[in-house]
Amino acid sequence: MNVRAGSRRTRFWRGLVILFSLGVAFVVGIGVGEALHDQPDLGGTQTLIRTLRPLPITPIPAETVTVTTTAP
């Protein structure tokens, strides 16, 4: 019976250490997540809005072009 009592104690402490380790990992994960969430954006984007006005159109002077071709 003495062997079983030692085995129970070992199992108890092993379970306690595993539970504690999972708790620490959970808290560290939350801390890292919050640190990443709170980090300011380094580059960011900037939007510029401009209104472009059309340039005035100058009329093209009318000229007549005559093309003469010879039949082959």
What can you tell me about this protein's structure?
By secondary structure, the chain is mostly helical. The chain is about 50% helix and about 0% strand. It contains 1 helix and no strands. The protein has one helix at about 1-40. The radius of gyration is 41 Å and the shape is rod-shaped. The mean pLDDT is about 85.
Number of strands: 0
Give the amount of beta strand, in percent: under 5%
* Major pleated sheet: none
> What is Rg?
41 Å
Helical fraction: 40-55%
Give the integer mean of the pLDDT values. Answer: 85
- The chain-level structural class is mainly alpha
For the record, give the distance between the C-alpha atoms at the N and C termini, rounded to a whole number: 121 Å
Number of helices: 1
| N-to-C series of helices and strands | H
Uncertain segments of ≥5 residues (pLDDT<50)? Answer: none
Overall geometric form: rod-shaped
Task: Please write out the topology.
Elements: H1 2-38
Brief rundown of the structure:
The protein is mainly alpha-helical and 72 residues long.
Task: Note the main attributes of this structure.
single chain; mainly alpha; 72 residues; rod-shaped
